[in-house]
Fold this sequence. Notes:
By secondary structure, this protein is of the alpha+beta class.
Amino acid sequence: MSTDHDHATAGHPVVDAVFTEVARIAPEVRESLLGRRTYEEGENPSGEQQLEADVYADELFEEALLALDGVGSYASEEREGLVEADDTSDDDYHCALDPLDGSSNVKPNNVMGTIVAVYDEPLPAGGDALVAAGFVLYGPLTTMVATCDGQVSEYTVVDGERRVSDTDLSLPDDPVVYGFGGRVPEWTDDFAGYVGLVEDELKLRYGGAMIGDVSQVLTYGGIFGYPMLRHHQQGKLRLLFEGLPVAAIIEAAGGRSSDGERSLLEKTPAELHERTPVFVGNEEYVERLELALE
Ligand SMILES: O=P(O)(O)OC[C@H]1O[C@](O)(COP(=O)(O)O)[C@@H](O)[C@@H]1O
Ligand SMILES: [Mg+2]
Ligand SMILES: [Mg+2]
């Protein structure tokens, strides 16, 4: 029997409205890729090239989410500062998005995502203020995963609507896959040693879009990571837009997250675009990683 709480976001009206809007826009984002595969002149605040598709998706989400009652501000990987809603109150939620995750995959037509994080404190906020998180995966199908109140649901997105396919997603007990970002000569010796052990046990899956790789881990079990690099101690991924939401999903699905020392959910960024090493996956593999990096 269907109830109000038969999927992760259903008991929280503002959060549910955010995810309903994200699902509504997802097909539009997908269609917008046609003709928007070229690079913009500028860079995003992290110094990365922006595709026309990055900018377009960002504008679609900004407009739709700020129009919702109860959403007080919007921040994204593609813009320097926050955008505030016209009417705000202390009870508002605050949305942080990676509008297109893995956008360098647009050109070769590979998998991409949209990541959404909903915080109950003004941004930048930390894991203690994260009330819900989710992602859209633009693969052969458009699917969505969302977590709220410790429950993780999966949906297929059809004609802009979420259809529940699983209300209790959890990591499989027998891990199968791993994927780590960054060029190998840039890895630290400790991390390279750990990878040597992992590759004896698991199969490599790395697609260049975190959401695609995280979905592999959610489905088959294992570990995904983007480590600290010799010349970039904080790695590549951003805590507010990428690390925290993915950590919330994987931890709610029974796994663990880490920056190499502690759960990502214990962290609070000092500024919107702060980066962090990111590791998410089955407990056993994240624990062994932390021991290897000690
Ligand atoms: O090209 P690399 O260094 O392997 O980096 C890939 C990583 O960078 C990202 O593409 C960064 O995300 P954006 O495309 O949103 O900037 C991740 O999705 C992915 O895991
Ligand atoms: Mg990203
Ligand atoms: Mg992005």
